Amino acid sequence: MKFTKMQGIGNDYVYVNCFEETVADPERVSEIISDRHFGIGADGLVLIMPSDKADFRMRMFNADGSEGNMCGNATRCIGKFVYDNHLTDKTSITLETRSGIKKLTLYPENGKVKTVLVDMGKAVLKPADIPMNVSGDTFINKPITVDGKEVFITAVSMGNPHAVTYVDDVDSLELEKIGPSFENHPLFPERVNTEFIKILDESTMQMRVWERGSGETWACGTGACAATAASVLNGYFPHDKEITVKLRGGDLFITYKSDGTVLMRGPAETVFTGEIDV
Description:
By secondary structure, the protein is an alpha+beta fold. Helices cover 16% and strands 44% of the residues.
């Protein structure tokens, strides 16, 4: 199997061009190649495929083999991949995902894409649609119990479920201990990604993320989008202002618009290409 390893501010996946390759068992392949000691090393596997609804189609699999609905960093890397590898010459493309069609704007420099702007669609706030095992129109700054402690979260879906909580210090968090308790909280029937946020100033936040199926990752595009939407809803930032989200792997730039749409801007990089016998 020929592959390309790419990363968006440290959120690294193995990308396979399924216009040329066939991956028969992507769930198992994702487990094998994601292993950082015995495989390639990645947060998961992304398949770039033909689409009858958009310019391209994405399927993404977490490191544990589970299929995800959406990955913001992966959408940017796909934009770079298809342009750099001459699968398109357009700088505005559409991408089919399990959570709908996403619109990408590509910004090339010297023939290679460096930055991608993604229209991530509208943030979903209704608990039934996130999904959550609770009724109501929103779940904003409400308490839940995690490991016997009361924690306030705001729930948002960006095509996948997110729980956003605010802390005084993100660097000292022991995510390996607390992350699984959030991920598998009974309030979320499909598990949940959790963002731990510290507000730094009127336009900047710091974030660490525990992703369902992958553990802590260096970045999460949908998580940054969910955290920005949550922070606007909690009164930390205004609508329609680009917010800098500082993650372990770098910065993303997110705008939560007045109509509920979220825009994500950030880099995408190719790490290396190769072949592996799976």
